[in-house]
């Protein structure tokens, strides 16, 4: 009598193709976790002092505007700040947004940006598990950090450990684009990342300071408010010349751009202001992103 093959017998296991990892017979794969063909994404902790910005401006026929700002923190990891305003509200759901592999073509057709940035060849058939972000596509920002709700997705800030501001590796995104998708996954709009000046204070405060961007980056409550700032604050010199956070602005001196006093929820005023950090330490170091093939 021949041997019977039950559900746990070797003969009952399916044959797997070459190059696949063979799990123990009968083991079930985790449907929420996918590892790329080249493994999980590596944590990026050596970003240079750099900043890249993708920006949308409103027009008469399209009131949507916003930005995705990426910059390196003092510990070398990346920080993203996302601000979308006037997203259409009649679409029946939330919006996904991703870093795509290619820049926006000259004709503006978002389909030309191709697929998500995916240097580890994970694919997108199985949704990203935000609890295991290293297993997600590098470019799947909304999968790792949450979708955008209409009409306004205001100043969502998070640490992104897998996308890189260092040219020369597959996770680098400075020469790529961001695409925002309707809830049905069709492409709503897209914008290229562009290099921006980066200013990092010598005390290592985590965050960018913007020069010549007009009003400050911080709203009237001392938290991120809007890219055009909040009402003028009570301290001179801050807020890039015209009001940043609470106590962070005032009409101010030229070249302003700090936050308010620490007691008012921010840092100190920028160059040209009357408010400088204790000991007169220099507050700004202007740094530029390493240039590559942009």
Automatic annotation (TrEMBL):
Segments of this protein annotated with the region Disordered: 216-294
Q: Which N-terminal residues, if any, form the signal peptide?
A: 1-29
Compartments reported by the entry: Cell envelope; Secreted
Question: Could you tell me where the Low complexity compositional bias lies?
Answer: 216-226, 273-282
Q: What is its main location?
A: other
Which reactions is this enzyme annotated as catalysing? 2 superoxide + 2 H(+) = H2O2 + O2
- Keywords for the protein's UniProt record, in alphabetical order: Antioxidant, Secreted, Signal
Tell me the GO molecular function terms: metal ion binding; superoxide dismutase activity
Composition bias, Gly residues: 227-272
Provide the Gene Ontology terms for cellular component. extracellular region
Assigned EC number: 1.15.1.1
Source superkingdom: Eukaryota
Q: What family is this protein classified in?
A: Belongs to the Cu-Zn superoxide dismutase family.
State the protein's name.
superoxide dismutase
Species classification: Eukaryota, Fungi, Dikarya, Ascomycota, Pezizomycotina
Q: Give the encoding gene's name.
A: 20346091
């Amino acid at each position: 009598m021949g041997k019977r093959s039950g559900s746990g017998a070797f003969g009952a296991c399916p044959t797997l193709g070459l190059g696949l990892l063979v799990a123990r017979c009968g083991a079930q794969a985790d449907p929420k976790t996918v590892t790329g063909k080249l493994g999980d994404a590596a944590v990026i902790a050596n970003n240079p002092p750099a900043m890249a910005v993708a920006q949308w401006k409103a027009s008469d026929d399209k009131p949507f505007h916003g930005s995705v700002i990426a910059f390196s923190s003092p510990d070398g990891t990346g920080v993203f700040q996302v601000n979308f305003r006037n997203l259409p509200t009649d679409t029946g759901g939330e919006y996904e947004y991703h870093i795509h592999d290619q820049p926006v073509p000259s004709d503006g057709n978002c389909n030309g940006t191709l697929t998500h940035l995916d240097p580890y060849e994970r694919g997108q058939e199985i949704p990203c598990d935000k609890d295991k972000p290293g297993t997600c596509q590098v470019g799947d920002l909304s999968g790792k950090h949450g979708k955008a709700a209409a009409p306004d997705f205001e100043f969502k800030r998070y640490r992104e450990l897998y996308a890189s501001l260092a040219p020369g590796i597959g996770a680098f995104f400075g020469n790529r684009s961001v695409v925002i998708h309707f809830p049905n996954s069709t492409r709503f709009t897209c914008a290229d990342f562009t290099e921006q000046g980066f200013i990092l204070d010598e005390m290592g405060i985590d965050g960018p300071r913007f020069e010549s961007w007009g009003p400050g980056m911080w709203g009237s409550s001392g938290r991120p408010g809007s890219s055009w700032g909040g009402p003028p604050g009570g301290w001179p010199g801050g807020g890039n010349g015209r009001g940043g956070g609470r106590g962070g602005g005032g009409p101010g001196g030229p070249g302003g751009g700090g936050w308010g006093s620490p007691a008012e929820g921010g840092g100190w005023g920028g160059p040209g202001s009357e408010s400088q950090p204790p000991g007169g330490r220099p507050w700004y170091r202007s740094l530029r992103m390493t240039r590559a093939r942009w």
